Structure formats: structure tokens, C-alpha cells
Amino acid sequence: MPYLSISHVTKQFGDTVVVDDFNLDVEKGEFVSFLGPSGCGKTTTLRMVAGFEIPTSGKILLDGVDITDKAPNQRNVGMIFQSYALFPNMTVAQNIGFGLRVRKEPEAMIKQRVDEMISLINLEKHAHKYPYQLSGGQQQRVSLARALAIHPQVLLLDEPLSALDAKIRISLRSEIRAIQRKLGITAIFVTHDQEEALSISDRIVVMNMGEMEQVGTPFEIYNFPTTVFAANFVGTLNNANGEVVDPAKGLLTVDGVQFESATDLKSRSKGDKVKVAIRPERFSFAAEHKKANVVDATIESITFLGSVVRIQIKIGNTKFNMDTFNNPFLELPKIGSKEQVTCSKEAVLVLAE
Amino acid sequence: MTTTSVKSPATRKRLVSGLIFLVISLYFLIPLGATFYWSLRGEKDVLGFEAYRKLFADTNFLPAFSESIINAVATIFLSLLIVVPTAYWVTLRLPKLRPIVEFITLLPFVIPAIVLVFGIIRLYSRPPLLLTATYDSSRVLLICVYVALSFPYMFRSVDNGLRAIDVRTLTEAAQSLGANWGTILFKVIFPNLRVALLSGALLTFAIVIGELTIALYMAQHTLGPYMANLTRSKVYEPSAMAIVAFAITWAAMGIIDFVARGSSKRMVDTE
Q1: Complex ipTM value
Q2: Cβ neighbours of B250 (radius 10 Å)
Q3: Do B183 and A102 count as a contact with CB atoms less than 8 A apart?
Q4: Do A102 and B172 touch (CB under 8 A)?
Q5: What is the pLDDT along chain B (271 residues), one digit of tens a residue?
Q6: pTM (2 d.p.)
Q7: Does residue A72 belong to the interface with chain B, where contact is any CB pair within 8 Å?
Q8: Which residue of A has its CA nearest to B266?
Q9: Which one, of A221, A220, A176, lies nearest residue A194 by Cα?
Q10: Do both A226 and A275 map to the same domain?
Q11: Domains of chain A: total
């Protein structure tokens, strides 16, 4: 039985369906991210798990207990907010101990737990400071400690890194992940930042317009997106219109140029129009021994991006981006030259709309 | 020549600002100074605090003053009890009701005190709502009326305070940590509204201390009617009384400023 089960959950505000038939099972200790653009329903889903919104239909079970209609203060769920939400009138230690005091835990136990949490987030020297005396990153760490102090069954993180600068964001996300692993706590993380989701999660739920587009590991989501939206939202992508030539062999054409795809095309018929996607880094200059998907391309432009060189190539009449690692000892092709490029059949994705 | 032409508009602006400040200051300070001067003339040919001594020696002053203070404290307590949860709930759950609540809280500005008091006397002078039969029951009624009079000040202060903090997120954070509504209000919201509550409370205090019309018609022995009576029978003491009332108001303002300074330091960077 899954630890957290969100089953056929729908949320409507008036006539607007914000979350539509959301289904997800989360295992104990798993770190799941909800990834999507603003307004895709990811935060609303998180808020339904927290109890701040009640689903219009569907059920939420936590460790086998139906919590769908329970008040937020009756669920044992820890929440971290984008704006930290530390109580300005309380010190770091008082903020962390707040949930335990509400639960009327013995004072000695509260002190011990607060000390544990403060040491977990390495803020021993700041225990008696007020939130305004801390930096954004420190405040968010206090918020994490406060949420963890109550031993929550699930930790919910609502874009906790969005208000921080880039460097702090990267270090804090590693810290959050390390603490989550150390404590083995189940966590749901809401973000619109694909890099954040890819780097931190066990699984990612890509959401769009209230619906789940794809659920999978970061590796699956990035390498094998199943929808145009998921493919475009996560990473950079070349999109093209194709036509199925031989469904059994996975053959299709883009502008008359033939490609072989590993995507199962058996449900398609010859002549079907399809959306084809290839990641820029999956292209390479063709070595002589390569046989599959070796196509002629014209070099249109070359852009130096530091660790990566982005080369725009034209195959037929369609322009694609091709990324190669920067190697100062290799000569780049000349603009306008004709080259042979290749990509594996696994790199040629045929996507659902 | 060029330098002069560049400087002159700024200089002129400073002069005009200074002049406006001076005129406004004089507008306030001349009557105040005159009142203070008049209050010092209690003794013939000598400037001194005789009027103040007589005022504090008057056996009716302290009972009237203490009664007004008790009324003010009761009004503040009741008003906070009504306004804070209302404003909090409107901010948190019913933002669409804000214009209606604002309109209701503004009614005491629209309805003249004389109309209000006659309406109240008519309504509460007969069974089943006979509240004017005894002095004490009238006093309770008076406090209730004062609570209504305090609404515009109290609601606005509390509302501004609530807008300055992220009420929704703080509430949700407290809820997720297991807090019930009582704990959220008393441990999270009230402490962070300290300045707003104090400001509303002190404005209410000032109104209740000086209120005349309603207290007079409800036959209450408070400071307002006492001052009115004093004006009719004495020459210098009313001025002394006005200065004392003014000093109390300024002391109240000073307390607000002092608390606000401490608190504003604390609120920095918590948004």
C-alpha cells in the first residue's frame, strides 16, 4: 500500500477546474516534485495534501488514513513556504519549538528537539535571533527545521527556493535533499524550475493546465518525455513535424529526410502526421561506422556558450540545434559547410500532443 | 548668473515649504500657547500652576477622570475583541466583504452623536431592552456606544496592521504546525499586530476621554460633562484641564511612536 495516495482528486473554483483527476501514489521516504508552469495546479494539489484546500472530489490517504476532509492542524504534515512564514515575534528557537508547544510536549523534550533541529541546520549561533536578523537562506533553513521538529508524516515544500539568489538556491536544495535522505521523510516539492526538480527528486510529476502530463524519474522525464508539453518544459528541445513511413520499423520522415525512431509506432499508420522531438545534445557529427540516422546537414550558425557550443544545423528545410561540449583542441565546422550528423534512434522521440 | 538661476528654484521651494510649515505650526501652537498662558493666570498678577492645583484638588475631578479611564479601558477591550477577529477573518477568508465592513465601521462618522444618543435612549428606555433604568446599566450602554464610535479608528488600525504582515501564510504555517484558531490569534496574530492594536487603542482612549454629547445625555459623570460644567463655572481651570487632556494625548502618541520604532526594526526583512 502506498504511504501517500492521492486518488482521483479534482479541485474546482467556481466553474474553473484547477486540478483534474489527479492520481499519484508516493512511497515512504520518496522525494516527489510537482513541476509545471504557473497556474498548472501544482500548488493547489500540494495545498489539498496540507488541508488548506478541500478537494471537490477524490480522496487523499496518508498511511492508510483518509485525511481528505481533515483540518490542517489535525494532519501531521509539515509545510515550508516560499516566503519562509517565520513568526516575526519569535526567535529561531521559539519558531522551531512552536509546533511542539502547541502539542503540549514536555519542556525538556521541546528543548532537546529544538537543539537537535538547530544543529541539523547548523544555526547554533543564531538560536536566539529574530527572523529579521537572518538572511533569506538562513530563514528558510529555520522554516525547514520548524516543519521537521514535529516529526511530520509528510514534508510539503511550496517553491521554497524561489525567493533566494542562485548560489544559495543550489546549496540549499542539496541541503534539503541531504536532510530528507538522512531522516527518510516523505517529501513533496513544488517548483517551476526544471533544473531544481531534476536535481533533487526521486520522481517528477509534470503538470499542465490541472492535468498530469507525465510521471517518472528525472532520467525518464528528461530522456523519454511522452508529451510535447513535458518534452518542451524540461530541457531544450528541437521540435519538427514528421510523417510515418513504416510503423513496424519505426521509420518516419522530416522534410523528406528519413529517421528511425525507437518509439513504438505500431498504433500509427503510414502517412500519419506526428510530432518529432530531438534533444540538441543527442546530435553529433557522424563517424564513419555510424549507420542509423546519418543525415546531411548544413551548418547555419555557431554560438559559444562556455562549456557547450550550440550549432544550428539545417536538415531538409528544418532547423535544429545541436549541442557539443566545448573542446578547445577540436576544430569547429565552418558556417555554410555541409556535414553529416547523426543521432541514435532512441533520441528520435515521437510525442503525443 | 547661471548658478543663481539653478539654485533659485530649489531655494524658493525650500522657502515656500518653510513658510507653509511655519503657518501650520502657528495655527496649532498659538491657540495652545494662549490656552497654556491662560491656564497659568490662576493667581492674580502671578503666572503659576494655581489652576492646575485647584483642578486636581476638586473632589469631582478624579472620580470623573477615573470613570472615564475605566470606560475607555472597557471600550478598548470590547472593541479589540470584536474588531480584531472580524478584520482577521475578512482578510483571511472573506475579502469580498471588506467594502461592506468598511462601510459599517464608518457609520459613526456619518451619524451625528446627538442623533445617535437620542436613538439609543429611545430604543433602550423601554422593555424589553430597558438599559437606562439605573446609572450602572446606562454606563454599560454608554460603553457599548463608545465601542461603536471606536470602530472607524480601531478597524482601520487593525486592518493596516494586518496588511503589513502576510496573514494568510502565517496562519497556514501555524495551522500546519498544529495550532488551533485561538492559538493562532493569541500567539501569532495579536503579537504581530502590537503597534496597530496600540494605535487603535490609544485613538479610542482619546475619543472616550473627551466625549461629551453622549455621556451628557445619558447622565454619566465622566470627564466630558465635567469639563463642560467646569467651563460654565470656572475661568482658568478649563484651560488647565484642556492642557492636561492635551498632555495625555501627546503621551499616548509618544507611546505609539516608541513602540512602533522598536517593532519596525523587527519587521524589516520578514516580508
Answers
A1: 0.84
A2: 10
A3: yes
A4: no
A5: 444 455 678 888 899 999 999 999 999 999 999 999 999 988 878 888 888 998 888 888 888 888 988 899 899 999 999 999 999 999 988 989 999 999 998 988 888 888 888 888 888 888 887 878 888 888 998 999 999 999 999 999 999 999 988 999 999 999 999 999 999 998 999 888 888 888 888 888 888 888 888 898 888 888 888 888 888 888 888 889 888 878 877 787 777 667 666 655 554 443 3
A6: 0.78
A7: yes
A8: A132
A9: A221
A10: no
A11: 2
